[in-house]
Write a structure and sequence with these properties.
By secondary structure, this protein is of the alpha+beta class. It has six helices and twelve strands.
């Protein structure tokens, strides 16, 4: 009987979802420590779509560049070709691959000013989304501003499930050579703040795997009481049968 009690207590303690496991921004020893890093500016990639708006006092000329799409007739949308260039009306092969949006704006504006002296150019990314998979809300979500943190991204998708693995959160991101890099980090530690894992970029895929213990994990007091009552009922049933 005493052995049974010890085994039941051990099972309950190992099955509970603890505050240490679920809480963010922890400073406790034993968690990874990540170095601070500057936010990486997104660099334009092949197959990106750039939204280019040209501003000038000459409305007739600017309307040629602001060719529009189905949603906004005042903005031109241009795809980045496999050679890393975009073609604008009267201007071909402007290489933008690997540039930040700010750098691309300066380069495109310089070319357009050969036709429109007072031109001001606004460049934005049309495919400005990140994606979430796994034990969190799933889907694609718009990056409505440049600096979106991992916590804001998770909040936008509805947050992590209780059984989501906080020790191993993955971000899949393409580098400047087009190769997909996988970043694995523990989101519970406070040193995630301002680290290389803190900010989300366009086209990022965030994957939250299930915790390895999820099959046995209990997430509420009611579940614990249920396990206790079921275990005792089963024990006394076996005990009664054995002593008939």
């Amino acid at each position: 009987m005493r052995l049974f009690k010890y085994m039941l207590l051990l099972f309950i303690l190992s099955s509970c979802t603890t505050n240490r496991y679920t809480r963010f921004l922890q400073e406790k020893d034993g968690l990874p420590k990540y170095a601070k890093a500057e936010m990486e500016r997104y660099r334009i990639q092949i197959d990106d779509e750039l939204r280019v708006k040209v501003l000038s006092m000459n409305k007739e000329v600017t309307s040629i560049f602001n060719t529009g799409d189905n949603t906004n007739s005042q903005v031109g949308v241009y795809r980045v070709y496999t050679d890393g260039t975009v073609d604008l009306p009267f201007i071909s092969s402007i290489r933008v691959e690997g540039l930040t949006l700010s750098q691309a704006k300066e380069k495109i504006q310089e070319q357009i000013r050969n036709f429109i002296v007072d031109a001001e150019v606004v460049v934005a990314l049309s495919n400005n989304y990140f994606y979430v998979l796994g034990d969190a809300g799933k889907g694609g979500f718009l990056l409505y501003k440049e600096k979106i943190t991992i916590f804001q991204a998770l909040a936008m998708c509805g947050g992590m499930n209780k059984v989501g693995n906080r020790k191993h959160v993955y971000i899949m991101r393409k580098d400047t050579e087009g190769k997909t890099q996988v970043r694995d980090f523990d989101i519970r530690t406070i040193t995630v703040l301002d680290s290389e894992y803190y900010y989300i970029q366009p086209n990022d895929i965030i994957y939250i795997p299930p915790a390895s213990e999820r099959f046995f994990r209990l997430d509420s007091f009611a579940a614990i009481i249920g396990v206790i009552s079921t275990s005792f009922s089963f024990f006394f049933l076996i005990y009664g049968i054995a002593n008939k």
